[in-house]
Specification:
Layout (H helix, E strand, L loop, with lengths): L1 H11 L2 E2 L11 E2 L2 H18 L8 H8 L1 H12 L4 H19 L18 H22 L5 H19 L3 H21 L13 H20 L8 H7 L1 H16 L12 H7 L4 H24 L4 H29 L17
């Protein structure tokens, strides 16, 4: 699917050109996300027409809820839209998912009654914040070839393991289909062999779509009536994008900077500035994300107390914040900027 859409991207001018805060050197098609979405639509449609019930209900609701967001993000890829417009589209898709499927985040842990939200409207608001947060976290991590797709693939694989363990055939099938679609994209996005650059990018369509799918399943599998994993486990399965986004927002607010402008102070940019190659940066971050995810799964499978897993996550986040800030300071004082001709831009919630 990805290969077929490359000439379409040139025809529709869905091309990411070098310049501004971009770090690539040549025009690149922005059809990775569209190919992932269409692959899933064709898969679910074919299964339905063939009488396979395993792709019924929730997968269809997911793809329908995110359709408007995919269209708006496609427009954003062609000509940049206002941040407020993007947020409204994300909120609309989130509201559709909540209304149609009943997906709701209202339980943050079973070890304290204070962590259970009894207000429906508050639960809806928290769910929207979580979904919008996961979408933008994936969008922010999408700055190096293969990184966002790799992060998404790891989270999707671990979620599929959780669904398989809980005998959730529908969710497992959809998650495996997502993994296959992402793998098909990564073949054209990662630098491997003699290829030194990506053939296609995810685009905003891909990053927010992956964030939406992952966020929706993190909520669905950790909340009633499914309860396939603990709420604390969900944090571990989305650790690196979550931690990096929170770090960026906190540090910029501390510096009295806007958190909604493009920047070069994301984790992957910091590592690039220390002199690491693109593949080394991607491998390092993916390894860290996998380690966090496996920690969460081990805690779930071996029934480690939820409060212990939550406190371990907070401790890991504190270490992540300290090490990240040390690397940032080191890159600014000892290393030459390698992500472009200009010094890093201070900014926020866009890439």
């Amino acid at each position: 699917m990805t290969r077929m859409l490359i000439p379409v991207a040139h025809h529709m001018e869905l091309i990411d050109y070098p310049g501004k805060h971009r770090t690539h050197a040549r025009p690149t098609p922005l059809v990775g996300g569209i190919s992932i979405y269409l692959t899933l639509v064709f898969t679910v449609t074919y299964a339905a027409l063939d009488g396979i019930q395993v792709f019924s209900e929730y997968p269809t609701i997911l793809l329908f809820s995110v359709l408007f967001l995919v269209l708006i993000s496609g427009i954003d890829d062609r000509r940049e839209l206002k941040v407020s417009t993007r947020f409204l589209a994300q909120a609309f898709s989130g509201i559709l998912l909540v209304i149609i499927s009943g997906t709701l985040l209202n339980n943050f842990g079973n070890w304290s009654a204070l962590l259970v939200i009894h207000s429906l409207w508050l639960g809806i608001c928290i769910t929207l914040v979580a979904l919008i947060g996961s979408m933008n976290a994936m969008n922010m991590i999408d700055g190096v070839d293969g990184l966002a797709g790799g992060i998404g693939l790891i989270s999707l694989v671990l979620l599929s393991v959780v669904a398989w363990r809980a005998n959730l055939a529908v969710d497992f099938s959809m998650l495996i289909a997502c993994c296959g679609a992402v793998c098909g994209f990564l073949v054209y996005n990662m630098q491997w062999g003699k290829r030194q650059y990506a053939s296609v990018f995810l685009g905003d369509v891909g990053s927010v779509f992956l964030g939406f799918i992952i966020g929706a399943y993190l909520i669905r599998l950790s909340q009633a009536p499914v309860n396939a994993m603990l709420p604390a486990t969900a944090l571990w399965l989305f650790a690196v994008p979550l931690m990096d986004t929170i770090c960026i927002i906190l540090l910029r607010l501390f510096r009295k900077q806007s958190p909604v402008k493009a920047s070069h102070d994301h984790l992957h940019h910091i590592l690039k500035q220390t002199g690491m190659s693109t593949n080394s940066v991607v491998l390092s971050i993916l390894t860290l994300h996998l380690a966090f995810g496996l920690t969460g799964c081990i805690g779930l499978f071996y029934a480690i107390p939820e409060q212990t897993m939550f406190l371990m996550f907070l401790l890991s986040f504190a270490v992540f914040l300290v090490v990240r800030q040390y690397l940032y300071n080191y890159s600014q004082t000892h290393c030459r900027t390698e992500i472009g001709a200009n010094p890093p831009i201070k900014g926020g919630l866009t890439k």
